[in-house]
Amino acid sequence: MPRFRHFLAIDWSGAAGKRQKGIALGLARADGGAPELLIREGGWSRGDVLALLREDLPEDTLVGMDLGISLPFADCGAFFPGLPDSPADAHALWHLIDDVCAADPHLSATSFVDHPDFAPYFRRHGGREGALFHGHGAPHRRGRFRVAEEAQAALGCQPTSNFNLVGAAQVGKSSLTGMRVLHRLDRKVPVWPIDRLPATGSVITEIYTAIPAIAAARRAGRSKIRSWRELDDALALLGSPALGREGPIDDHASDALLTAAWLRRHADDPALWSPKHLNDAIARTEGWTFGAP
């Protein structure tokens, strides 16, 4: 019997405002059928998603959230090297971010990246690259990376640092806002591998939607799907029934639908729950991306 009965993929957004065009939710069921798009009138807010995760998840759901669930730690031995009282693990990091941003509306994280203690670690708009953006001699011009992001790159993905807040490919804003949501769940739903994988019940994982796209024979640099017909072709390669619609689809929706089907196909692969570079220290601090080797 499959461990999970439902598979929810959440394409996330760190954009300003109450409701986000970039948030999309796709749901697949273990008993088959095409994935479906979950619609919220007026669009989803981060608060809406938090409420769903806390109160309205279907039973035994594997949730994949397209964001970084933590910041780099292993490369420098700290999230914020040189800062007194830098958080010791991911749960403490989430608490810190949510506390600093308590007055920020809509679960945004502006106060954190503008805070004088933390701004030096980020690359921000207007050419404001903090003196500690690269850590201590980090090997990447693009900033610090988690071990999981190195594993993503080995698959052919093109990850960016969670300390980078600039450019179309940046994931820093969405990751920080997502960490506020994860903190406010108050461990109601475990977040693997920061929390241990329970034998039953729902679990949240980090996903990177380029990984399902690569599994569906798309190149990482051209992974976005913008027509229903293209989406059906990709779903077929993942063993999923087609949706059978015509015309354009926005890439947030297609990412969520394709990833939900991919989660259903791969959730019971034991290798994906035991990546070779994941150990207890990395799990506790940096977390991992489900699907990265």
Short description:
With 293 residues, this protein is an alpha/beta fold. 29% of the residues lie in helices and 10% in strands. It is globular.
List keywords for this structure.
single chain, about 290 residues, alpha/beta, five-stranded mixed sheet, two-stranded antiparallel sheet, 9 helices, 7 strands, about 30% helix
Q: Could you explain the architecture of this structure?
A:
This protein has 293 residues and is of the alpha/beta class. It has a domain at 6-69 and 185-273. It has 9 helices and 7 strands. The protein has helices at 46-56, 90-100, 110-114, 147-154, 172-184, 210-215, 228-237, 251-266, 280-285; strands at 6-11, 24-29, 36-38, 61-66, 123-124, 128-129, 203-206. The strands form 2 sheets. Strands 3-2-1-4-7 form a 5-stranded mixed sheet, with helices on one face. The protein has a two-stranded antiparallel ribbon with strand order 5-6. Strand 2 (24-29) and strand 3 form a beta hairpin. The protein is globular. The two termini are 25 Å apart.
Layout of SSEs?
Layout: E1 6-11, E2 24-29, E3 36-38, H1 46-56, E4 61-66, H2 90-100, H3 110-114, E5 123-124, E6 128-129, H4 147-154, H5 172-184, E7 203-206, H6 210-215, H7 228-237, H8 251-266, H9 280-285
Parallel strand pairs: 1-4, 4-7
Antiparallel strand pairs: 1-2, 2-3, 5-6
Q: Distance between termini? A: 25 Å
> How does the helix and strand content classify structurally?
alpha/beta
Rg to the nearest angstrom? 18 Å
Number of strands: 7
Q: DSSP helix count?
A: 9
- The shape is globular
Q: How are the strands of the largest sheet arranged?
A: 3-2-1-4-7
Which spans of ≥5 residues are poorly predicted at pLDDT below 50? none
Proportion of residues in β-strands: 5-15%
Average predicted local confidence, pLDDT? 94
What helical percentage do the residues reach?
A: 25-40%
Major sheet size, sense and barrel closure: 5 strands, mixed
What is the string of helix and strand elements? EEEHEHHEEHHEHHHH
